[in-house]
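If you are new to this repository, start here. Below is one unmodified record pulled from the training split, so you can see the exact layout before writing a loader.
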Amino acid sequence: MEQQGGGGCCTCRGNPRFKNGMPDEPAPSADYYRQVAGQIRAFAYAARVPEVRRDLLDLAERFDRMALYVEQRYPERRGVLPPHGEVK
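And here is the target side for that same chain:
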């Protein structure tokens, strides 16, 4: 496998900026994860292939669980904006 050369900085390739080893963007809130789950469900309901619908609904459920986890573990992250360039 050959390495690609001259790829530029990480942010040019879509990776987040880092400051002191941590991403320089706010962590997603529980509301953000719920919003994404809702969007995934909308795609699922529009899907015509049953397997795709089931997989999307499973993914939406994972996002709902992540929202619950964030609420329980990090209550201070309520109302935090989603990462830059993401769903609003």
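Two things worth knowing about this chain: The chain has two helices and two strands. The chain has a mean pLDDT of 78.
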